[in-house]
Write a structure and sequence with these properties.
Layout lengths: L3 H4 L2 H4 L3 H5 L15 E2 L2 E2 L3 E8 L2 E7 L6 E8 L3 E8 L6 H12 L11 E4 L1 H5 L4 E11 L6 E9 L3 H37 L3
Antiparallel strand pairs: 1-2, 1-7, 3-6, 4-5, 6-9, 7-8, 8-9
Length: 199
Amino acid sequence: MPDANTYSGLGSQYSGLDSQYAGVSGSSKGGSRKIIKIDGILLPGHFRLLQVGQDIIIDEMQVQDKDGHIKQPAGYDEGKIKIEVVLIPDDGDVNTQLASIYGLFRKVEGQIKPDIHSISNIHANSRGIKKILFNRLESTESEEDDSLAVKIELEEYVPVAVQVQNAVFQQQQQDVASSVLPTATASAAAEVSKDTGKP
């Protein structure tokens, strides 16, 4: 959940990504936007899709002695990234390629705590996402050919200190809103009564 400062200067910070990835295999149509590196390692497979999304956080407060809620923006949720690639035999054994991706998701069998990774991709980085966690890894095969379709879901990693800071800020907002809500509600009700002539 990056703050406003995270996005300042993004243009200059990521302006060199195109040259950084120029000439890397797999960067045909679409250029550097199709290049995805996790911890500096080029993600194998043929690019199909990369989608970046982020939601805002809305707090709903119930109006005292009234039906309904008042909605108030409280912050931003972590960014989410969806990636789809296809592994084909022309690039080597598909299971070996899949194993290299799985090694990012889970380094060793029995690993309990997921690792934090860095991501290098001009699309994701331009959205302010630099550190990620693997949320889901899905691989699918079919009878049509020997390829493997891989879907990856990532979530932006936010340091604990920042999470605490954001939680405190959201609580402060809620406290302020709670203190002014009764007065604001009474004033609004009075205005309605004045306009309609009904108490």
